[in-house]
Specification:
single chain, 129 residues, mainly beta, 7-stranded mixed beta sheet, 4-stranded antiparallel beta sheet, 11 strands, 46% strand
Length: 129
């Protein structure tokens, strides 16, 4: 059974940094897309960043481009989200997600949350002004 566990959230001041981690087990991590989503109170869950199986393709939401960096360590079956220059509007619960099967197009990194099957429990990030 695939398990996804995200961690690393916390309280940080405007302009600060945090590094989120996502640990997975129960499947061949190196074959799968990994992505981060977030959900602010009263809002829909939205795509933040994604990385394809090889790590050569990364995609970011416009709101985080240039500030957030997604990476993966296949040896440890982990994905990371380095978040710099955080803003109060980045406050949300952050979720790591992965699909149940590899995509035929190895460069495809979907932004549609409906294409992801396994989710972490969420790690809260609060950015104070």
């Amino acid at each position: 059974q695939v398990q996804v566990e995200d961690s690393g959230g916390g309280l940080v001041q405007d302009g600060g940094s945090l590094r989120l981690s996502c640990s997975t087990s129960g499947y061949t991590f190196s074959d799968y897309v990994m992505s981060w989503f977030r959900q602010a109170p009263g809002k829909e869950r939205e795509f933040v960043a994604g990385i394809n199986w090889s790590g050569r393709t990364t995609i970011y939401a416009d709101s985080v481009k240039g500030r957030f960096t997604i990476s993966r360590d296949d040896a440890k079956s982990k994905t990371f989200l380095q978040m710099n220059r955080l803003k109060p509007e980045d406050t949300a619960v952050y979720y790591c997600a992965t699909p149940s099967k590899p995509f035929t197009n190895g460069l495809f990194v979907p932004q549609d949350k409906g294409l992801y099957d396994y989710w972490g429990q969420g790690t809260p990030v609060t950015v104070s002004s």
